[in-house]
Amino acid sequence: MSRVVLITGGNRGIGLSIAQRFLAQGDTVVVTSRSGDAVPGLNVVQCDVTTSASVDAAFVEVEAKFGPVEVAIANAGVTRDKLLVRMSDEDIDEVLNTNLTGALRVARRASRSMTQARNGRIIFVSSVVALMGSAGQVNYAASKAGLVGAARSLAREHGLRNVTVNVVAPGFIDTDMTAVLSDERKAAIVGNIPLGRYGSAAEVADVVAFLASTDAQYITGAVIPVDGGLGMGH
């Protein structure tokens, strides 16, 4: 049965791969981006997750066109990497407001119709660095770690209403964000991954699709690593 699936930051990278995965299985897929620019083959709405008004407007538009959101995937994220002693307040605030608070805004808005319908899936896209840590990414790691506590708390709030809340924690995935790394840095990273390679965005998308499926209806509050063994389930 086709569902309405909303993916924030679904216009590129992992988000786009997730969108294509749900589209291939027949769901009605809507992706958000700050620009709202068209993405071939996908429905797009403009949304800036750093403001509640923009998140609400995006949901209103989706609900009017397609119906209530049944699967909400909070994927939008940014990085502002540098050592903490060199980070400005803006570096910290922008990452936390987008990656963590933005995801909470999306989950809060999605929860309205899901709890009323007593059915829904909320999935946060975190990172392997959430629990491993990463030098130069204190702000990013904090934002992604916060998603774990948020998901598990929300899973307890929504459990009796048949709404599951889970976290996917990708490791190093072959995307535009990792493509800019030097060959030396890439080799060092791969050397620490038991499977000896980067992951693909499609592999992350497969896990997200599983968590949204009926096969995962008894899974909630879980953190699923997709990292080739890098974090060893931290």
From TrEMBL:
Coiled-coil boundaries: none
Domain Ketoreductase: 3-176
Xref: SUPFAM superfamilies: NAD(P)-binding Rossmann-fold domains (SSF51735)
InterPro entries recorded: KR_dom, NAD(P)-bd_dom_sf, SDR_fam
UniProt keyword list: Oxidoreductase
GO terms, molecular function: oxidoreductase activity, acting on the CH-OH group of donors, NAD or NADP as acceptor
Pfam hit, one: adh_short_C2
Signal peptide per UniProt: none
Chain ranges passing through the membrane: none
Keyword Membrane: no
Gene3D superfamilies in UniProt: NAD(P)-binding Rossmann-like Domain (3.40.50.720)
Keyword Oxidoreductase: yes
Family: Belongs to the short-chain dehydrogenases/reductases (SDR) family.
Protein name as annotated: Unannotated protein
